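Input chain follows. Return structure tokens only.
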Amino acid sequence: MLIEVKVPQLSESVSEATLVSWHRKEGEAVSRDENLIDIETDKVVLETPAPADGVLVKIIKSDGDTVTSGELIAQIDTESKATTGTAAKPAEPVPAVRAPAATGAAAAGAASPAARKILEEKGIAAADVEGTGRGGRVTKEDAVVARTVSAPAVAPAVASAAVVEGERPEERVPMTRLRARIAERLIQSKNENAILTTFNEVNMAPIMSLRKQYGDKFEKAHGVRLGFMGFFVKAAVAALKKFPILNASVDGNDIVYHGYIDIGIAVGSPRGLVVPIIRDADQMSIAEVEKKIGEYGAKAKDGKLSMEELTGGTFSISNGGVFGSMLSTPIINPPQSAILGIHATKDRPVVENGQIVIRPINYLALSYDHRIIDGREAVLGLVTMKEALEDPARLILDV
């Protein structure tokens, strides 16, 4: 009996996707619910499970093909017998990186999202690692223990078209679907929004003192570390409550005021920057916010964020400080109308009561759409965040 393998249902905002890498070949046996292929949209990477036990008798769409929701991509015969050996090659204790060989999009992509991230940090190409997963796929565990071995001094294998001319090599690498979508949205934001940025500085000493005093008790009570992001999210909530226009969006000639606060937190992933949404952030405690951020961070590293978790949002926060940024002007994430940029906290000389003192200072940047947000609301909104962060009791007492 022939069973059809189709592209999973994509969200309404996603019209098409790209097939990344088949994990089985034609003629190989497959098991029900095993992942046959990764499908990349402009938001997430979806796994496509086998609908039944059988043999993959026909692959209709190849790696790199563009597909749409419900499109037929393969067929499984539940009564056929495998014609291709499927036994995985025994894994070595430490997967060694082999000398670079012939390259291709499929070879370079035959690794899980988490594995690709680890290998990128090590400067190792996925195609150069012996994978122990199904069909030779490189797993996260393979990437963790992978090491570089002596090899000829040539460029590592990459999925790109390389042009080498003497000592001035170049390579052309196609944008991923996510990167292309990011580029499209950034240009849209710059072209459609009247973006202006206002700045302020925050003395982080009160929060740092609070974390030092209650950090251990907080972790024991809630099972999560007391970080800074929980405070930034709640400070943003305080400002959005006081100035609802910061939480609004533009739809044609209308201003849409949202009766809820869904805050997007920009985080890095193996595929690029993604912005998962903390829904109803105004109804959450700092502990609940920290747990959700931790959950999203882990999912982002493993490429497991769902479309629902990446869709929507009424306001965003971008934390360049984790990379050492001192100051930036974040770009609004449309259709939102404002975004908060936070940066590295550094000891700086400031004046208090006529005296120069050293304080841990963080520079805040609020970019906003000047079409609907006046400077007064933007500046006072940022001041509200500053006051909440410098007196964290306000966040607890909601004053």
